[in-house]
Write a structure and sequence with these properties.
Elements lengths: L1 E3 L12 E5 L7 H17 L2 E7 L4 H4 L11 H10 L4 E5 L3 H4 L3 H10 L4 E7 L12 H11 L2 E5 L3 E2 L2 E2 L2 H9 L3 H8 L3 E8 L4 H5 L4 E5 L8 E9 L5 E9 L11 E6 L18 E11 L7 H33 L6
Parallel strand pairs: 1-4, 2-3, 2-5, 3-4, 5-6
Antiparallel strand pairs: 7-8, 9-10, 9-14, 10-13, 11-12, 11-14, 12-13
Length: 336
């Protein structure tokens, strides 16, 4: 996949394209429906499946007080879009000049002249142009005038609720990981560098990997069943992760994200038989076990951590048993 970060960097043959437009934070199930349709339409017509997105988020320029915390970086969004079949992405630097474009200027100068749009697919709440003056009806009218197709994708629902980035953020901040993951279509994840802690865990409770992340949306304080991936290799481990301020040790000024790996010798100090400790990790949140709370002693905390580990092992065992049962019930496929 090709990623472009400025209008000046666009090649003259960017088009013809089937393009969708939006912020796509989280690249959730609703977004993926649009991306799949863009891919299908582009393949059928011999065009290029394309995305126009923005960095920074437009509200950071036009209404900073309303800027949402973001679940995904532009780079992570690009990776997820590539997995959905997108061929090329323009991550357009959004500034005040672009914010002043009328809907007509946005379409003619950007979509037609620079992106070679033959079809534009957007969600039913799409707005564009200065002061959001344009909506889907405006886009359809311009499509008829300028000769490009327009498709409006209806909202996707899950369990009776509309799937949206803002809704998923609210679920994550409330610790409702299971429902957030259903809306996303995959586990929510944070990634970053492994950093040194104070060493309290390895001495008084259990050794952990401490994550320093630039992620803006952090799940609610508590203990979670997770999967931890080494971003520099193919290694991955089942894990238990605590998000919080370690109140048992009197720390309350800095949020920590600490993961204990369940199934790897990496929990011992690195050495010839344990493998090198990972430097860059992604922590995928699978289920919430409990809220964070203060314990009367490190020993009591360690005992609770061991119970958390047991609960996490049960979770993974049930998940594995369910997967195996599902495979057994559907394979081999029925033949006519």
């Amino acid at each position: 996949m090709r990623v472009y970060r400025s209008l000046a960097g666009l090649p003259p043959n960017f088009g013809p394209s089937a393009v969708t437009i939006g912020n796509f934070d989280g690249v959730h199930r609703g977004h993926c429906e649009i991306l799949r349709r863009v891919k299908a339409l582009a393949d059928a017509r011999g065009w290029k499946a394309s995305v126009l997105t923005f960095d920074p988020h437009p509200t950071k320029v036009v209404a900073p007080e309303r800027t949402p915390k973001l679940m995904t970086t532009p780079e992570r969004r690009a990776d997820l879009m590539a997995a959905a079949g997108v061929e090329q992405i323009l991550i357009l630097p959004f500034d005040r000049a672009i914010a002043q474009w009328s809907p007509e200027e946005f379409v003619t100068q950007l979509l037609i002249e620079r992106l070679g749009a033959r079809a534009v697919l957007v969600g039913d709440n799409f707005r564009f142009g200065c002061r959001q003056a344009g909506d889907t009806r405006t886009l359809e009218a311009l499509g008829r005038q300028l000769g490009f197709e327009v498709e409006i994708a209806p909202a996707v629902t899950c369990r009776g609720q509309v799937v949206s980035s803002s809704g998923i953020r609210n679920l994550l901040c409330a610790g409702r990981i299971g429902l957030a993951n259903r809306f996303l279509g995959r586990p929510y994840a944070l990634e970053g560098d492994v950093v040194s802690g104070r060493g309290v865990g390895s001495k008084q409770t259990v050794p952990t990997l401490n994550l320093a992340t630039a992620g803006e949306v952090i799940p609610a304080r508590g203990v979670y069943v997770t999967r931890t991936r080494d971003l520099d290799s193919a290694r991955a481990w089942t894990s238990v992760t605590n998000v919080g301020y370690r109140p048992t040790f009197g720390e309350s000024d800095r949020l920590s994200i600490e993961s204990f790996l369940l199934d790897a010798l990496i929990n011992a100090l690195p050495g010839p038989s344990t493998g090198a400790a990972p430097r860059h990790i992604r922590v995928e949140f699978l289920a919430r076990l409990r809220s964070e709370r203060k314990f009367e002693s490190p020993e009591a905390l360690k005992a609770q951590i061991l119970r958390d580990v047991s609960a996490a092992r049960n979770y993974f065992r049930r998940t594995q048993e369910w997967t195996q049962a599902w495979i057994a019930s559907t394979w081999p496929p029925a033949t006519s």
